[in-house]
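User: Here's a chain of 175 residues. Predict its fold as tokens.
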Amino acid sequence: MPWAFIIVIGAAVMVVAAKVQIPFWPVPMTLHTMAVMGFAVAFGPRIAVSIFITYLAAGAAGLPVFSGSPERGIGLAYMAGPTGGYLLGYLVASWLVGTLAAGKGFICRVGAMLVGMIPIYAMGVAWLAIYVPASQLLATGIAPFLLGDLVKIGIVAASSIAFPISILWRWSNRK
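Assistant: Prediction complete.
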């Protein structure tokens, strides 16, 4: 399969992951984390980052690819909004998880995904601080999502046992 095809399909899957909302209290959550982690573990950092950059570029161009768009805005205005830091964190996590999980076993892949949550939450909350009082950052930017993100990591981890992820990774990184 040509790389461009994988990247375009991956970006389309990322759009679906953004649009699928799971009713969760106090805010709905999307499947972004699962898609980011899945691509990073399956394809490594180069392809995972390319997929997410393609997704961000489509959003920056004004396509309604983000969660809540077009109702909550589109393009660069949306990206500069409250969730902009999380988008940047996902990009960093794509590289970090892909790098740490590359060719590794199950335990290392799970560890890589857990480490990958650090830039997502750190950048997300740092950016969210522009919009939310500091006393509410943990309650609005991390706490509602933590359990769901751990479940999504568990799903990706379980899938990596059931599906030969290492074969995809080796195939996508051959010269």
